[in-house]
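can u pls check wat happens w/ shikimate-3-phosphate
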Amino acid sequence: MENQHIRPSTGLRGEITVPGDKSISHRSIMFASLAHGDSYIRGFLRGEDNLATLNAFKAMGVEIEEPVTGELKVRGSGLSGLQEPRDVLDCGNSGTTMRLMSGVLAGQNFFSVLSGDRYLRRRPMARVINPLIQMGAQIWGREHNRCAPLALKGGQLRSITYNSPVASAQVKSALILAGLRAEGTTTVHEPHVSRDHTERMLRHMGIELESFPGGVQIEGGQELQGREIEVPGDISSAAFFLVAALIVPDSELLIKNVGINPTRSGIVDILCSMGGNIQVLNEREAAGEPIADLLVRSSDLHGIEIGGDMVPRAIDEFPVVSVAAACAHGITSIRDAAELRVKETDRIAAMEAVLRTFGVRVDSHEDGMTIHGREVLRGGKVKSCGDHRIAMSAAIAGLRAMSAVEIEDTGCTATSFPSFWKLLQQTAFPKE
Ligand code: S3P
């Protein structure tokens, strides 16, 4: 097991780029594989989660050229050109791979099995299994159809109108992908707007779909066209450096080429509401996604209340938001975020344990946490719980601690941000 040691930093400086967006990288491989013609993908994130998606499509006969550097080339096989995989498709730690693939496989006339690591096999899958069964797919899962491994036998699907009880882009995307193979119009309603990368990339590839307040609608039988896809830097990875530069005095950092899709940019709004000095510069667009450079400077943060529509807009950032809250004046309350309990790990319990080790007072609730900010953080030894975002959040807190921090089990950062430790070293501890 790999452990990392972090010492206090005296300031983050310079100009960095973060690796490609994980959500968009998954979709680029999936949609390019399902398209007619070739697609060229620039900025693809070669993290473990995305490689699981890439390998799954290779196992179904899709030709993907992946030079060590530069663009990926995907020779699309069309919506009905995938081949039955000869083995279990291993989704690793990736919920996005498993849930979106379920939507793809529900419309394929062959047998397949999806599995993953011990964390993924604990996560709720009924949220995609139930509506896909309603659409006519045959799916079996462990624990009465709630957990992976999943066995699927797809085929001709019928369209449905589905009211999702959770705001989840993974559920919405699975049903949109199944809807492409269904007869008629598939409609998905959700309680709050979730990330819309699927809708944007499908439009970029020639698909017509209608987004309306609270949902999306798609007509079956449409075909995707291969395209050039540029993957922007991942705002969820940039988030660690945003918080680091805000909480460590004497910092000024420029993070270039970050995706600022409004369904993902909640972290910038949250940190600015806490008093953070973040400037959004040089806004532009690529493959239907807005991109910008973010300039961040050390700031005096104060506590705020977070809930409602903001939660899905920053769903992956709450571990590092809790670190910003720990270093802010006053109290921060995070509510309506019960989804955090079913991420790669229970992120409320995991961050409660990390912050308590650092001397922070935290009250946890079923749907969130209340964090009492403090002037100084203590050092100590904490656990990542095998969750990449917990490991990286603990590292950021460590930059502001009075003494050294040890983080156990940090290999998991390879799922979304393989270069994290190197980039942290370069920015937080530059050689004189
Ligand atoms: C993702 C959606 C989110 C997010 C996950 C990636 C996606 O999950 O937490 O890391 O790529 O669609 P939910 O949509 O289930 O909230």
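The chain is about 30% helix and 25% strand.
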